[in-house]
Amino acid sequence: MTEPERPREIAAIDLGSNSFHMVVARVVGQSLQIISRHKQRVHLASGLNEHHHLDQAAMQRGLHCLAMFGERLQGFDPDNVRIAATYTLRQAQNAAVFLQRAEHVLPYPIEIIPGTEEARLIYLGVAHTQPETGQTLVVDIGGGSTELVIGEGFDTQLTYSKHMGCVSYNQQYFPKGKISAKHFNAAQLAAQQKLESIATKYIRTGWQTAIGSSGTIKAIREVLIGLGHSDGIITAKRLNQLIEAILAVKHADDLELEGLSDDRKPVFAAGVAILHAVFQSFHIEEMIFSDGALREGLLYEMEERFRHSDIRTRTAEAMAKQYNIDPDQALRVRETAEKLYNQIEPQPGLAKAELATLLQWGALLHEVGLSISYAGFHRHSAYLLRHSTMPGFTLEQQTVLASLVRYQRKSLKLEEMPELSIYKRKHLYPLIRTLRIAVALNGQRSDEPLPPITVQADKEDWTLTLPAGWESDNRLLAADLQQEQAYWQKAGWTLTLLEG
């Protein structure tokens, strides 16, 4: 009698500015069963100085926490773990140093995600854990940033991430824990100013339910319950009552509010100021709390990817449409790149399979820069892919896409390639070579299918075998391939052309 197959276990880690969180779940049928949660306050944002450098003490706190998380994840397949880093590591100029050290204590890739991607994943986590239907506003006040999302079902309509959080605002407006009406009003006004540019759009879009998530709003809810509001609903009137209680003391250490933990005290006033600004700017009447947040969004997306179309595919297709890409040419280049790469990596491992997928998206989007101008369009394409809002993609993945399209043609100035943390440059070189060949072979933009072409790779030395006599029948293509050989040679690579 065979033993029943063990349920798949997946884990998500959220490297926040104030706390690191890990949640582990078991996939049971069509649902997730949370089996453990872990949280450690690391105060990462407090180690970020005015030059956006993360100090050694903050790094060490974070690494110590990751080492503890690593003990729980022993034996987990890399495909079953997702780690997302948010505001502080987005801002830190020396984030790469932290990521390199983290590899030694937790052998799973850490994705630094853009603010809009963080907002989308937070919404996804809330949407999967709340029974409410209809238009929903989700607000998440973190240590360094605040995410604001309107969506319905599992789809988002508006996503913004603002640079304001309970840790950063505490440092700026409540120095050394001092509390006063002047400090509180300054923090609230600053938050309202940041929200001013988006408030009208949100109010016009509208929502049926406002939901708060994560630590700041959870702490506010618990304190309101301690003040006698047993339903835990946050209203403008109750926030005013809470503000009065905060302003009754002169220092954060003196906050004696039922439900408020000692480690939350230092940043509590700043969090309340931001939430009150959100209430005022968006004319919110009441807000409920959701346990779902970024880490739950990561979990559900890991499992959802096996049942729904990939959000990144939808993003790439929408971008192709937005920039009027020639779909036939994009498809020709993508199919050629796939066929060539499959010869180089017939059975790619997990990391190379992800890169193969990025190659497909890079091929699909390699001409986005044509919408700006033909001259130097590969550079325009790289800029758009690096700096556009692309739901589903991490900053690293956008950097990979930008690098692929940047080096699709012309000279190979590889020294200009940006630094990567998850992938190494040597991982990208085969993709760049593959895309360059695919672009060159389809340079005539012909509907005629390409004949069988084989490629062999020995590190930097590649051999392309073309059908006998094909080059002589395609003299323009032959000239392009000879020019390509010269570009490769200058980069220290070799492209040999044979006729078979």
Automatic annotation (TrEMBL):
Bilayer disposition of the protein: Peripheral membrane protein
Compartment(s): Cell membrane
Keywords: Cell membrane, Hydrolase, Membrane
Top EC class, one word: hydrolase
Catalytic activity annotation: [phosphate](n) + H2O = [phosphate](n-1) + phosphate + H(+)
EC number: 3.6.1.11
InterPro entries per record: ATPase_NBD, Exopolyphosphatase, GppA/Ppx_hydrolase, Ppx_GppA_C, Ppx_GppA_N, PyroPPase_GppA_Ppx
Swiss-Prot/TrEMBL cofactor(s): Mg(2+)
Cross-referenced Pfam families: Ppx-GppA, Ppx-GppA_III
The Ppx/GppA phosphatase C-terminal domain, residue ranges: 311-485
GO cellular component: plasma membrane
Keyword Cell membrane: yes
GO biological process: polyphosphate catabolic process
Keyword rRNA processing: no
GO molecular function terms attached to this record: exopolyphosphatase activity
Protein name: Exopolyphosphatase
Organism: Photobacterium aphoticum
